[in-house]
Structures are given as structure tokens and as C-alpha cells.
Amino acid sequence: MRKIALLHAPLAAVVAIALVLAPAAVASGPEPEEPGKVTSAEAIAAADRDQKVIDERQEHPDLSPSASMNDGHWEVAYFAEDKELVLVLVDSHDGKVMESWTGYQVAWKMARGYSGQFGHKLNAPYVFLPLCAIFLIGLVDWRRWRRVANLDLLVLLAFGVSHVFFNLGEIGVSVPLQYGPLLYLLARALWIGFRGRGEGLRPVWPALWLLVAALFLMGFRVGLNMADSGAVDVGYAGVVGADRIVHGEAIYGNFPDDISEGDTYGPVNYYAYVPFELIWPWTGTWNDIPAAHGAAITFDIATFALLILLGFRIRPGPGGRRLAAILAFGWAAYPYTAFTLESNSNDSLVAMLLVGTLVILARPLARGALLALATFAKFVPAVLAPMLLTYETKRRSALLFVAGFALAGVAVMLWPAIDPGLKTFYDRTIGFQQDRDSPFSIWGQVNGIEWLRLALTAATAALSLLLAFRPRRKSLLQVAALGAALIIAVQLTLQHWFYLYLVWFYPLLLVALALLGDREDAKTPAPEPGPSPARSNQPAPVG
């Protein structure tokens, strides 16, 4: 292999020099303008006539244009005081204005409502609406319409209202609408978590029907992913990071220009993509990225399988089969778990690790290690640490949890700590997220309310610490519900929020609602909370 590399070194050097010099030559010379096509001056003249440019120029008379060719069309950008205020896309053949943008939509392409950016075919009404219907038909208790659990299902689907406006490019409407469902689900999760009882999911269908439907839906999702989906930036970033690991290079501060901010996640995120990058190596460009597809499908199926395993571990026999079927169907039928898969993002990795944490909840060493993996994937699960530390009241269990968390944390952070160092790691991840300015939250759209975000962040931290002591003894049901509440509370304070993040808390909330329904079906008093694996609301120990 060394000889082959040496033989190809001169050719690689020539190619590298050509790639470096070619853009410089283009940038330094005049715009390439083919005969018969619109020139840059003509593109600017056409853009000057756009109403958005006219309106903006009335407020900023010094507005100056700059034209560049991109993807076969002219992009005319208008600047005032070095700030880009308007962007006009002009057809390079007929000189007509194709699109024009102001405000958030200048810098954020995902705010423009482009078809197929996220979710691809899943956004089509003939796909999304039937999935919503299947979700309701399968999980609603049709014998009792006024159950609060039925309302929970409707609220989980209510994100679709915000989603419609996002797809239309109306983020001024879509962003405020996302907070209503989040606030309701936060209140519901806290209520369930502190009381440990209430109305849960009681579908009318036999367990076998639910399980068969779930398997069919999983097959449909995977098939749709393979036939029509694309890797969004987070999936692409995972593959690039895995490529850096495979080649023994630093992960952080070492990403290409087309995904320069993709090194914002924890190292576990990039480690998780390594097996898939080895099978489907990154080609160096942002194309279909088969490794991202493979990773997303694996995370999705693994979460599905772990939910089934959790159901069987909680309650043996027919009751366990029914609980497993409800959890499996709840994951497979929820449109936003499919949306995450169809976007080939990394968010189901968090869901997989958190469900895995519930499966081994009675094992403090493994519980700590899995939570560390989830934390060093996307950081938000760190908020669960105080509650999971004290899940069992014995001092030995707490020490084992800390040991598991520390060992796993040190293992995954060793490489970034050595190269490029903890400062670069912090600046590229947590530091970047803290300073992020995004229009996909009310904090990025409304001026003067940063104090409220900071207050909510402090309240979330206080709640996280409180849950280490109250309730003093917690059941699996309560851990799942309160875990969902904590993650939702963090999401309410995020500078950048998106529908892909729903899968961070959804499986935990699903487990809590399914366990509530399981208690109702069993017609038994709610068991006393505690870590005993013999109780119906606790997972049996491994082995």
C-alpha cells in the first residue's frame, strides 16, 4: 500500500495544485459569460427591478450589488455596511428573477421553504397524513374518547401545523407555533413524573396486530429511505468526522469548507459513523452519502428493537408482549421518527442511547456509561445525570454510576483531548452552540428577551438538580417521564430548534405513556417506586 501511495503522490500533488489554483484564477479574472447568456451586468439590472430590492434601497440608499454564478444561475447579493440584506436569484438564460429573499432567508437556505430539504417524500400530504392517521388509529382508545392520553397523541401530531408553515418558508409563523406543543408535553411529562400515575395508552387492537403493523411500517420507512431521501448537513458531518477518525486525523477544527461547522457535536457522534464510513467511504463531496443512510437506518432500527426488548423486560408473558407491541408501534408509526430517518440525521442516535439506558437502568455501572455516550454525542442528555445518579438510593450504586460515566467519558474524550486539545474541542462544540444565532427559535426572532431564556435555563438546571432528590424513590415510569420533561425543558431554551429534535424525548415519553396504560390494563394498584426489577414498572437485570 505504501508503494502504491508513493506512485500516486505526484499525480495527487498535481490534482491538488489544480484544485487550489483553478478557483483563484476564476476569482481573480472576469466572470465567465457565455455568448447568448445573461451577463453579470444584465443580471444586476434585472435584480435592481425586484420589489424587495427597491424597498430595501429606500431604507439603505447605499445598497451595493455583487453578482456571482452559482449552480447555473446568477446570485445577486446586496450589501449595506458589509451586511447582506437582499439576495436575488436571476436565470442565466432569460434574465428573469427566479427568487428574492430578505431577512433570515438571505443567510438561511433552510428558511426558504425549498422542497425536499428535509424529509423528502415524507412531506407529501399523501404520505404524511396517512402516517398521522395510522398513528392515531393504532394508539387511540376508541372506547373512551375523552381520555387525556388521546389528547397527548393529538398534541404529538400538532407539530405538523408548525411544519406546514416551515415548508412554505413562513418561519415567522412556524417558529412560534412549535412552542405550544412543547409546553403542553413538558407539563404532561412533569405531571406524570411527579405523580407516577394517570391515564396512559390503551389501544384497542390485539398485540399481534400492532406488532405486524409496526414491522410493516419499519419496512416501509427503510424502503422509502433507500428510494428517496438525502443526507442533511448533520448526517454529512457525521460521515466527515468518521473519515477523519479512520485516517487518524483530528476531528475538531479540521472539517472541509462545505460543512465547516459540522464539528459541533460530541466525539461519540463521529465514532458511531465509523463502521458505515468503512463500508461506504466518503468520496470527498456532499453527494448521496450512503454511509449516512446506513447509520440513520441502523439507529432507527436499533431504537425500535430496544423498545421491544424493554417491553419484554418490564413485564413477562402476554402483558410484556402487549407492552412491547405498543412501544414498537408508537415508534414506527410516529411521523417525526420517520421524518428523522428520511432526513438521514444523527438524532436517532440520541434516542437509541437513551432507550438503551432505560433497558439497563437497574445496572448502575452500565447506566452511567450509556448516559456518558449519549452526553458526548449531543450534550443535552447531560441534564439527566443527577436523576440517574440517585435512581438507586444506595451509596455503592451512586459510586458505580459515577465510575461508569467517568470511564466512558474519558475513553471517548481521550483522542479530542490530545488532538486538537480541549480548548479547541470546547470552542468548536459547546462554545459554538452558546454563541449561535438562529431564526429557528423565538430567541433568535424576538429582540430583548434574552433575560427570559437565561431564566428558563437556570430553572431547567434547578429542576435537574431537584430531580436528584425528589421524588426520593423513582420508578422506571417516573424516570422516563421526568427524563422527557428535562429534555423538553432544555429544548425550550435552545437558540436553534428543529423538528428532528423531537426524537430526543419522544421515546421516553412513549415509554411513560405505555407504562401508565399497562397499569390500567392490569387493573392493579400502582406499585411503590423503587429499583426492584421484580416490579412491573422496572426492567429486569441483565444476565
Helices, by number, come to 25
Broad shape: globular
Structural class: mainly alpha
What is the residue-averaged pLDDT?
Answer: 87
| Straight-line N-to-C gap | 45 Å
Low-confidence stretches: 1-33, 524-543
Task: Please outline the major beta sheet.
Answer: 4 strands, antiparallel
Round the Cα radius of gyration to an integer and report it: 26 Å
Question: What does it look like?
Answer:
The protein is mainly α. 61% of the residues lie in helices and 6% in strands. The protein has 25 helices and 4 strands. A 4-stranded antiparallel beta sheet has the order 1-2-3-4. Strand 1 and strand 2 form a beta hairpin. Helix 17 runs parallel beside helix 19. The chain starts with a helix and ends in a 21-residue tail after the last helix.
Topology, pairings included?
Layout: H1 2-28, H2 40-48, H3 51-59, E1 64-70, E2 73-80, E3 83-91, E4 97-102, H4 104-107, H5 125-139, H6 148-157, H7 159-167, H8 171-177, H9 179-195, H10 207-227, H11 233-246, H12 267-279, H13 290-314, H14 318-333, H15 335-342, H16 347-359, H17 364-378, H18 385-389, H19 395-418, H20 422-428, H21 430-434, H22 442-445, H23 450-466, H24 476-493, H25 502-522
Antiparallel strand pairs: 1-2, 2-3, 3-4
Helix pairs in contact: 5-6, 5-14, 7-8, 9-24, 10-14, 11-12, 11-13, 12-13, 12-17, 13-14, 13-15, 13-16, 14-25, 16-17, 16-25, 17-19, 23-24, 24-25
